[in-house]
Structures are given as structure tokens and as C-alpha cells.
Amino acid sequence: MVRIKYRYLLVNILYPEQEVQNKKQLPAGSKDSLPYTVQFRRPGPDSLNGKLLSRLIREGVADLFGDYGSGMVSGSLMVKYCSQATSTAIIRVARAHYRMVWAALSFMTSMPVKAGEVPCVFQVVRLSGTIRKSEEEAIRRARLQIRRAQRANGGDADAAVKAVDGAVDAEGDLAMADGIEDFEGEGDESDG
Amino acid sequence: MFYDLNVPWTANDTGLPRTLNFLYELGYSVVALNYILIGKLPNELSCAIPNPLPYKDLPSKLEIRRRITVTLTDSLQNARLNALAAQYDILALRPTDEKTLQLACGSLDCDIISLDLSQRFPFHFKIKTLTEAIKLGKKIEICYGHGLLGDSQGRRNLISNVTQIIRATRSRGLIISSEAKGAVACRGPWDAINLSAVWGLGQERGYEAMTKEARNALVGAQLKRSSFRGVINVVHGGEKPAPEVKAGATEKKGEAQKQKGQMTNGQGANGQKRKSDALGSETNDSGSGIPMSKTQMKKRAKKEKMEAESKAAKSTGDAKSN
């Protein structure tokens, strides 16, 4: 009996535009008060859940790769984890076809909400063969993001936090840690 | 170090700081602001992008360069292209048809060849023209931004053009950049590499296109501007730092040098004296205007030689006694 091999994509959802709904509540001057890094990595819309994400990916794959792509992907595609609060998701897909799903994620530009659409960018930050590694990476990144946000905020306000941060970590690296874990999927490039 | 060498710049673009911050957030470390010039070159060549930029909240660690893209049409006079290039960090050319593409690949001096990939070209990209450009160190740019936001027709053209370019260049000398008209069209570096992998560029080649090749383009352009014919550049003039030696040591050394100097000076003077004296006497003689007989000349020469030798013997004797 041979195990079916999967790839787990750890995805961060970034929101490049300003939040529109809260504009009324905020006073006019404080629009830009949040640092950019916090704005980009804010919690997603309430409607975001695994079901919606799965539907979006299937539509994207069908749009880009047609019936062939959606047929190849649909058997193995599964949203393992989707957090609206941290805008993080883990997506499982068969190893042979992960590039199609990744491309579909790259081509997504917006997410439907109740009133219209929210522009968003999906960034794959980790590609691994086991879900455990993805989880560990997600936790590591969440920590770094918090630290980063604190640093961005404490530039002039909270010196104590800043000092502690400086001791803990010079600069959190949020780039893809060690690139792509392996290149076993290379043979399937011609599929696209 | 990931590079995005194409971020369109327009005056009064309020979204630019957001775009730059977003690029930094995605993991890019060097971006080039791109000023697109269509039509004739202006009379006064100057950099349209102000330095420093008039925005406050830019990420401090993001390196920002300035690039100009000149759209090539048949009527363009390219005499002043080099003068224009000197105002910017990178010069890119955007050919519109086969003839201008050949021109850009061959004779025109530029750093990047950037085609508008969202339109359909009525000709094939020839291996010969593109490899010629790559041999000259020019890079060919793939912009994915249009494919993300445009309609499906634009996306289709983009994919078809990219595959053709990859075939014609044999996946060498390519750079990938965003040409993003807003933060939404930017993608992370690895996402762009994956896209290019789906389009037929190997993953390693895609990685190089985001990092190594883009850096080559940038550094090559810099060298062209600052160095002698792009070959030799003075990085450091070799100025000696101010001497920092202890006072006692310098005195001792100074004495030693003095002695040495005397010796060498004495010898040197002797060596030279002989010649210069001989010359001087000759010139004097010739100055009187009376021609000398050969025997006279020989006599004089011998006399002077003797004198000089005796002097030299004296001086060396002095030096030895010292």
C-alpha cells in the first residue's frame, strides 16, 4: 500500500487596500494612523471560511486550466485550515498538481463579501510535504508578525516594548524561509 | 534579495507609498520606479522622478532606483538616448514592432528590453535577435501585472508571448517584474516564480530572473554610467590614511632615513654630475659658435672624465668613512 503524496500550501492573505467599511466610524484624521504592516495583515472579512476559499480556488483553477485542471485538482484539493482572524490558510493538494492551485491563488485579486468585493493578495509562504511543518511555520510567522507590528507601532510610542524587541530579535524575516522544500514536482511542469 | 525593476511612476500618484510598502511586505528589497516616455525626447533632459521622493512613510530598508522606459517608434531620433540614460539608473526600451525590436536588440545601447506582452505581436521572436541582445548584456523583461488584472484576452496574449520569449531566449537573460499599477497587482517573489514555472520557465531560472539577472541589469547599468567604457571603475582611490606612529619611533626612523638619503644622494649626484657637466661644457662650447676640432674635443672629454672620477672616488671615500 502506497501513501498518496500531498503538498500543503501555507497561504497568507494580504489586504493591500484600506478598509472601507470602517471609514465612517474612524475620525477623518486617523485613517493612516495604523502602520502599513498591520493594515496589510489585518483580519479578513467575516464571510471568509474554508468553504468560500475552496470554492474560490476551484473557480480559479477552472478559469485558468479549464476542465482538465479542475478535474486533476478536485480529487485532492482540501482546505485544511482557514483562520479569518489571522488571515492564514493551509491548503492540501496532490503533489503532482500543486502548481496549478498555486497559480490560481496568484491570479486571485479579490474576495467576495456581502457588499461587493475586497481586493486581496494570496501569498504562498511555505510549501511542505507534511501538515505539521506548515503549522510550525504558521506559528513562527504569527510571532514574527506580532513583533513586527509592535516595532512599527513603538517607533515613537512605547520605548519599553522596543527595547525588549531589540533584545529578542533584530529583524524578523518574513520572506519565504528556505524557498520551496523540494523540487520533486518539477516533472509535472509541462501540465500547465 | 528580490528585485522588482518595474513599478510605474506618475506624478501625483497617491497610491505609490502604499504600493512600495506592500512590495516591501511581500519580501522585495530593491525596486525601480519606472517613468514611461512616449514620443519625442524632451528638450531638457532631466530626471522626472524627484530625489528624494516626496513621501514620508516609505520603508527605510527598501532600496529605490529610477528607471526610464522609452517607447520606440520609427520616427524616434535616438541621438540623445545616452544623455537621457545618464539621468536615470536604468534605461529600458519598449519596441513596438519587429524593426524596432531588432534595433533595440542590436545597435541601441540599453539595459532592459521591455515588450508590452498584453498585446499580440504579428511576428515571431527570432532566436538570433534575442540572443544577440543577451550577448550584449541586455535583459528581456517579463511583466506579469497585466495578466493579473487584465481580461482573459490579455492574459492569453501574455502567456503566449512569454512562452515564445522563453523559447527564443532559451530561458536565459530574463528578468521578471510586476509593472503593477497599484498594490493589488503585486505578487510575492515566490508566487511570481511559480507563475513563470507554470509558463515553462524552470524554477531555478525563475529564481535567477528575480534575483541574479535583475541584479546584473542594475549593476551593469551602474557600471556603464560611472566607469570607463564599462570596464574599469575606480572604487577607491587608494588615499593613504594619516600616519599614526609613535613619536620615538619616527625620530629613530627619521635618522636612519637621513643617513640612507645622504648615501644615495651622493652617489646619485655623482652619477648625474658627470653627464650633466659634460653636456653643459658641450653646450657652452657650441654656444661660442667656434667649431672645435676632434682632437680638442677628445682632450676635453678625457680631462673632464678624469676630474669626475677623482671626485667620485673622494665622495665614496667620504661615505665609507661615515
TrEMBL record, chain A:
Chief location bin: nucleus
EC number, UniProt record: 3.1.26.5
One Pfam family named in its UniProt record: RNase_P_Rpp14
Top-level taxon in the UniProt lineage: Eukaryota
First-tier enzyme category under EC: hydrolase
Catalysed reaction, written as an equation: Endonucleolytic cleavage of RNA, removing 5'-extranucleotides from tRNA precursor
GO molecular function: ribonuclease P activity; ribonuclease P RNA binding
Keyword Transmembrane among UniProt keywords: no
InterPro entries named among the record's database cross-references: Pop5/Rpp14/Rnp2-like, Rnp2-like_sf
Any one GO CC term of the record: nucleolus
Gene Ontology terms: biological process: maturation of 5.8S rRNA; tRNA 5'-leader removal
SUPFAM superfamilies, sorted: Rnp2-like
Summary of the function given for this chain in its UniProt record: Component of ribonuclease P, a protein complex that generates mature tRNA molecules by cleaving their 5'-ends. Also a component of RNase MRP, which cleaves pre-rRNA sequences.
Protein name: Ribonuclease P/MRP protein subunit POP5
Taxonomic lineage from the root: Eukaryota, Fungi, Dikarya, Ascomycota, Pezizomycotina
TrEMBL record, chain B:
Major site of localization recorded for this protein: nucleus
GO cellular component: nucleolar ribonuclease P complex
InterPro entries named in the record: Pol/histidinol_Pase-like, RNase_P_p30
Record keywords: tRNA processing
Chain spans, region Disordered: 238-322
Pfam families: RNase_P_p30 (PF01876)
GO MF terms held by the record: RNA binding
Localization (cell): Nucleus
Any single biological process term in GO: tRNA processing
Biased composition (Basic and acidic residues): 238-258
Family affiliation: Belongs to the eukaryotic/archaeal RNase P protein component 3 family.
The protein's name: Uncharacterized protein
UniProt source species: Cladosporium halotolerans
